[in-house]
Amino acid sequence: MTPLLSVSRLTRRFGGLMAVNGVSFDIAEGEVVGLLGPNGSGKTTALNMISGAMKPSGGEIQLRGEQIGGVSSHRIARKGIARTFQLVRVLPSLTVDENVVAALAFRGEPLWGDAARREADELLHRVGLGGRGGEAAEQLTYIDQKRVELARALAARPALLLLDEWLAGLNPTELRTGIGLIASLRDTGITILLVEHVMEAVRSLCARCVVMNAGSKIADGDTAGVLADPEVVRAYLGT
Ligand code: ADP
């Protein structure tokens, strides 16, 4: 079967630096895959290329067999890839539901008016913000802003959701809630690629992990095996 996402010999150079160096991996429909690696290993650069925020220097990216490498981010979003960012991006001057309604207006099949409000309500329920649509986005706690960002990403009805350290900065209680929320999305069948440093989250959410180090892929397989791989352990310890 054609994988949902296929990344092949993906490369990105910054001057003399190979930030991503010939990385290949596939993601099947319905998988939740962790993209791991120490700081500076190229994970965000890889996500940026997959989401269209950055052009590859080389290699290919295919979504359901269609070439999307170098395609603009808004066109990629319409083809079914949505993402969240390491630094939360909500529209602070709008209310919670206006944030989601705005995202619905910009998707491939835009929704407006009452239909958009109803869909926004449903999305807010899905991320644990049911009944809170009237609140000002800038007044929300950090985790609730992250929930809004997730609802905005889901507004595109993505086939593939890219989460860039979505769980970073949460306290232990929020972390458990956050893991539960991502698990609930996984259980609806959405395919997820997550860059994550929180190992508790990786272990409970990802059946499979891809590990990068210094721009190259060093491991790809079931999570327990990958985390026990001596090369992966060495990369994290920097020895
Ligand atoms: P990670 O997400 O794994 O921490 P990044 O993809 O952010 O790694 O960075 C990989 C490497 O590319 C790092 O050495 C980083 O300094 C470099 N890099 C990332 N973005 C840029 C950029 N826009 N310009 C120059 N160098 C960059």
Automatic annotation (TrEMBL):
It holds the Pfam family BCA_ABC_TP_C. Coiled coil: none annotated. Signal peptide: none annotated. Residues 5-239 form the ABC transporter domain. Keywords: ATP-binding, Nucleotide-binding, Transport. InterPro entries: AAA+_ATPase, ABC_AA/LPS_Transport, ABC_transporter-like_ATP-bd, BCA_ABC_TP_C, P-loop_NTPase. PROSITE patterns: ABC_TRANSPORTER_2 (PS50893). One of its GO terms (molecular function) is ATP binding. It comes from the Bacteria. This is ABC transporter ATP-binding protein. It comes from Mesorhizobium marinum.
